[in-house]
C-alpha cells in the first residue's frame, strides 16, 4: 500500500526528545462495541492507570495529580486538591502519543451515511460527516478526561483540525509540527480515527491504525503498542476451539510475514481472523498489515490485551530486550 | 496593538466563495456565567435557530434536518429521520464562521492556574492548561451539537489543534488553510477561545475576540456580529440608571473612535464599562477595541443581544444598507 505522502508537509518536525511509544487504544477495548456510544469505564480507567505508570516518573508525594477539573454528570463534589501541585518539582513524562479507535462511537453514524465512500454533495453524507465527527470527538473528550484524571497531561487533537486529509483514502497531507510542538511542551497528544476531507472522494474515514502507521513512519517511536480486547493475534477467530495465540511474527523486507513462535506444523500462514460486520475500518487482518508496515521500519509492535499485566509490561518497555515465556501477546518484528 | 503576524503562515487561503459573516457567541450569552460549566440552554437553542435562518437556504420540505446523531444524557429516543435527507437537493448554506467565548467554561480552570501568564514548567500551570482545554472543548462540543441539531453542518475546530500559537500573547502562527478548506467543503467551522502555546511565555489564553479579529483580517467577511447578553454598548455599565445605548460608533483611520448616534451633549467619550472580575480575557472595553480594529478593515461590526429580533436582523445581513430606527444594538463602522 502506498500512502502517497509525497505531498505531506512535514517540514518542521524537530523533536527535542525521541518518542518512546505510540499506544493505540482499540475501540473494542475501551468501548462496549455493541452498545451505541457506551464507554467501557472499567477498562478505560485501568488502561489510563497503566499508561500513567508507563510514562510518568513517580510524583514525590506518590499522589495522582488530577488534571480534569471539569464537572461530571452525576457528581456533586467538584473540589480539587490544588495544593498538591506545590509539592511537585516537575511532572515530567516520557514522550508518548495516544491514538484511539472509535468502537461504538462514530461507526454507527459513518456506516449509516457511508462517509467512507465520500460524496459530500449528498445531504446524507454531509450530515453523516458532521454526525461522525460529533461522535468521535465526544469519545476523544472522554478519553482525554480519563487520562487527565490520572495525571497524564493529555491534549485532544483531532486529525481533521490538525489538517490531515486524504487522496483516494491514502494520507495526502498532514502537518505533524503541531503534534511535535505539543510533545516538546510535555503534553501527550490524544488523536483518533476521524472523518476527514479527501481531495478525490470529497471525504472519507481515516482509521486510527493508518494514523499510527503515519506517525510511526515520521516520528520514529521506540515501540508501538496496540491494546485490544483479546490476548493478541490468533491463527483463527480467538473464540474458536484450538485457536492458537501467535506470540511472534517476523516481517521480511518484501513486506511478507511469517509466524516465528509458536512453531507449529501445518499451521496455515494465512491467519483467519474475525472482522465485526459494523467495523468500517477493518479488523485484525488490517491490524496485522498495518503492524507489519510499522515493524518494517525497525519498530517493534506489540498487540496485547488492554488492562492486563501483559499490556503494562509492553507499554513500560520491559519487553524490548527480552520477552519472557510467561508474557502473553503478539510481538511483530522486522527480520533483518 | 500589533498582533505580530508577520510570521503567520497563510499561504493557501483560496476561498471559492467569500465569507458572509463571522459570528461571535459571547460566553455571557450562551452560558450561565456564575454557574460552573452550565450552558444557557434556552439561549443556545434560540441562537442556533437564528443562525440556521440566517445562513441556510430553506429546505424543500421546510423540515430541519438534524446532524447530531449522538446519544444525549437523559434522552431515550435516539431515532433519526434519515429518510428526510432524500428530499433534499442540497444543503447549501452561505459561508459563516462561528467563534465562541468560554463563559463559565474554562475561566475557572484558567484563572486558578494562571495559564494566561505562562510558565508551563510549573506543574499547576501545566495541569491548568490541560484542565482549561478540557473545559473549553467540552463547551465547543455542546455548541457544535446544538448547531448540528438545527441542521447547520458545524465542525468543531480548536485553535490549539489547528496550530494557532502566540508570541508574548500576540498571534504568531496560524494555518488558516484548514479553516478555508472546511468552509469550501460547505461546513461551518466552530472555533473558540483556547489555551495555546506561546513561544515566549510557554503558554497563554487566546481569546475568542482576538481570534475573530485575525479571521476577519485574513478572510475578509462581509460583516461581523458579536452576540452578547445586553442590547449593545452603553455609555456606562448597562444596569446603571440613565445608561445610554450607543447605536453607532465611527472608527477613524488612526484607530480612535467616537459615538455618532445618539448625539448627546456632554457625553463622555470614554465609555465606562463593566468587566466581570473572573473574565480573564477582558470585557466590553476589549470588545470595543477589537471591534474597532475590525471596522478599520472596512467590515461593519454589530454588537447585539443574542436571541432577539435585533440579532436575527444583524446576522441575516438585513442592516447592511440601512439601519432602521427600531433596531436596537451597536454598529461600529469605519469613517472613510
TrEMBL record, chains A, B:
Signal peptide, first to last residue: none
Key words of the record: ATP-binding, Isoprene biosynthesis, Kinase, Nucleotide-binding, Transferase
Residues annotated as site: Transition state stabilizer: 33
Known catalytic reactions: isopentenyl phosphate + ATP = isopentenyl diphosphate + ADP
EC number: 2.7.4.26
Family in the record: Belongs to the isopentenyl phosphate kinase family.
Protein's name according to its UniProt entry: Isopentenyl phosphate kinase
Organism: Rhamnella rubrinervis
Taxonomy of the source species: Eukaryota, Viridiplantae, Streptophyta, Embryophyta, Tracheophyta
